[in-house]
Amino acid sequence: MRYRKLGNSDLEVSEIALGSWLTYGVGVESERARNCLAAAFDCGINFIDTANVYGKGAAETFLGAALAGRSRDSYVLATKLYFPMTDTDSGLSAAQVHKQIDDSLRRLRTDYVDLYQCHRYDPDTPLEETMQALDEVLKAGKARYIGFSEWTAPQIQAAMDIGGGAPFVSSQPQYSMLWRDPETEVIPLCTDNGIGQIVWSPLGQGVLTGKYKPGSELPADSRAANPLMNQFMDRLLDDSLLAAVDNLRPLADDLIISLSQLALAWVLREPNVSAAIVGASRPEQVEENAAASGIQLDDETLSAIDEALADIIQR
């Protein structure tokens, strides 16, 4: 496993991070989830990403119990806030920032998180209020650094323009071979300002693993076949998209790697990416994904990927 600096922080994070959206505490039973977590540590993964809203606290609760026996300085722990936890608890107001960090720390059974992230931008709260509250969380020692997820370039710039408090060190956008929107504005802006990317869905919610075939039934043990975990996958299961992804298989075969490893290596080719977050429901998936760390793709392979996916890339 290789490690990269997370933006301008002093955090050294594994290139592959383990996520918990729709999986731990939700769609994957506890023993198997614990086995996945153990496999991650065995592979050198030290970066665990979660959010308060994942399972309405269930993912954090699972991780709090599963991590309880490990030395706190042996892993980097990130969580988020914004989405509704109750009918009255949502957004990035000062009250919510302070309430949600305390609730997350309680569920995670820790005194601090390494990274506290705004899960989305809150148009209903003054940005100055949010930034001040986040700075107070840092000064209280409840988080070491702050970040955001799915903010636009103008929103990021507005936060930087406020100044005076601790800066953001991380951005968490969706980014993959299939979804390249961050390349236009977000990645260049972040590169210039010491903000590293922690990308989610680098495997296109599993589509880039090659497990889904055009015109075929969904594998019974797949995420797409699980009603607890198959949200937002309709577009990705289009036959034309699956056929294009299948065209990547010879490229992976030539390199003697899996399609998953090809997709993760593609994301990690970007210097501003600090880590790629993967989900896993089985330990062997963790092991396969972790092995993508350090794979280098040459220019010929990168061009062949672009050609194979030319008709389906979203920018």
What report would you give on this structure?
The structure is a single chain. This protein is of the alpha/beta class and 315 residues long. The protein has one domain (3-206, 270-295): TIM Barrel. Helix content is 35%, strand content 15%. It contains 11 helices and 10 strands. It has helices at residues 30-42, 58-66, 94-108, 127-139, 153-162, 186-192, 239-246, 249-255, 259-268, 283-290, 299-308; strands at 3-5, 12-14, 16-18, 47-49, 76-81, 113-118, 143-149, 168-172, 196-199, 273-278. An 8-stranded parallel sheet has the order 3-10-9-8-7-6-5-4, with helices on one face. α1 (30-42) packs parallel to α10 (283-290), α2 packs across α3 and α3 (94-108) runs parallel beside α4. The chain is globular. The chain starts with a strand and ends in a 7-residue tail after the last helix. The model has no long low-confidence stretch (mean pLDDT 93).
Summarize the helix and strand pattern as letters.
EEEHEHEHEHEHEHEHHHEHH
| CATH 4th-level superfamily | NADP-dependent oxidoreductase domain
Low-confidence stretches: none
Class by SSE composition: alpha/beta
User: In angstroms, what separates the terminal alpha carbons?
Assistant: 30 Å
Coarse shape: globular
